[in-house]
Amino acid sequence: MVPLTSIRTSNGKLEIVNQLLLPHKTEFIDINTIEDAHDAIKTMKIRGAPAIASLAALSLSWHLSTAIETSALPEFFASPEAMKAHIEQILAFLFTARPTAVNLGAATRRLAQILQASVAAKKNTLDIAHDLIAEGNLIADEDIGRNKKMSKWGGDWLVRHVEGGGVSSTALNVLTVCNTGSLATSGYGTALGMITYLYETGKLGKAYYTQTAPYHQGSRLTALELQTLNIPSVMICDTMVGSLLQHHKIHAVIVGADRIARNGDTANKIGTYNAAVIAARHQIPFIVIAPISTVDLDIGDGSRIPIEHRPPIEACLARGILYPGVDGIPNQAVVMITPQNLDGVYNPSFDVTPADLITAIITEKGVAVRKEGQEIFDLSDIV
């Protein structure tokens, strides 16, 4: 089956799939302005650290391409200085959309560097714009290739790790959290990409995944991706991780990341830390897989990672279709699952898993494991 996609650029359009309506309705939204991109990221119509970085980059490319095609160039094309001021304002605005995912900051900094270099080279404004358009497109295009690289690194490492323990690697059962597939990236995925690789190479038994409340990225999005790819899978509630690891043979827990500190501490979707603690209790490998752009070498440890807190109301709501429905029509609905005007709601979007609970960290450059007796990672070989 054809993998799902979060972003598409075709027929002269930049579009995203509205992930708030999945899995029951597939609706693509036009991204016509920088403000559209910012809103889509902030309201989680698109989510996943690599995907939001790709959309931010593509929205700038789209903004400049559209400007070039107009009959009269906008005022910011008047001089390199005007162009620089305009683009810097856009990049700063896009960066505010979501604070935890480092990929967004990496993309905006990378575009800022291209801008600075082009201005310093005394290029004219059209050439500066073309440089930024090319770089924005490249940021999105290169994501699929690196996802496939890291998935192979991770899958092959897990097979060797399991076989090294004297266990057959022909039916590996793994658990993941949240959604890290094509919907969270520009294609293939990170943790879900590694699961896909295990399936494609005949090594996967079953993929278990948590519902991942309160946005249910697991039960809505991961379920849809695994179903689309015909990958054997089982959904569990977030509170069932302990029971699963007690009563079923799970060979690894595999998760993505929104930011990895220099020592290996990792911020990921809320519930990841819970899974890591329980995996450690059961001596099950806990694997983090993410692109190099997710590693933030400027942050020494997880205590310095900013954690986004979402509006309290979001933890009080659930999205889906009415069941059993009216006349067989799948009517979309948002329902409240708490008393109205509930006081006191704690709703962080991410948590931080300490490095000492992580077995391996994987990027497109390879696999890093903690050395015997050490509680932190040396990531120098994989960034």
Kindly report the spatial arrangement of strands forming the biggest sheet.
6-5-4-7-10-15-16
Low-confidence stretches: none
Percent of residues in helical segments? 25-40%
* Quaternary structure annotation: single chain
Q: What key attributes describe this structure?
A:
383 residues, alpha/beta, four-stranded mixed beta sheet, 9 helices, globular, isomerase
Q: Describe it for me?
A:
This protein is α/β, with parallel strands linked by helices and about 375 residues long. It has helices at about 35-40, 50-70, 80-95, 100-120, 125-165, 190-200, 215-230, 240-245, 270-280, and strands spanning about 5-10, 15, 30, 170-175, 205-210, 235, 250-255, 260, 265-270, 285-290, 295, 315-320, 330-335, 350-355, 360-365, 365-370. The chain has a seven-stranded mixed β-sheet with strand order 6-5-4-7-10-15-16. The protein has a four-stranded mixed β-sheet with strand order 11-8-9-14, covered by helices on one side. Helix 2 packs antiparallel against helix 5 (about 125-165) and helix 3 (about 80-95) runs antiparallel to helix 4. The chain is globular. InterPro entries: IF-2B-related (IPR000649), IF-M1Pi (IPR005251), IF_2B-like_C (IPR042529), Initiation_fac_2B_a/b/d (IPR011559), M1Pi_N (IPR027363), NagB/RpiA_transferase-like (IPR037171). Its main location: cytoplasm. Its EC number is 5.3.1.23. This is Methylthioribose-1-phosphate isomerase.
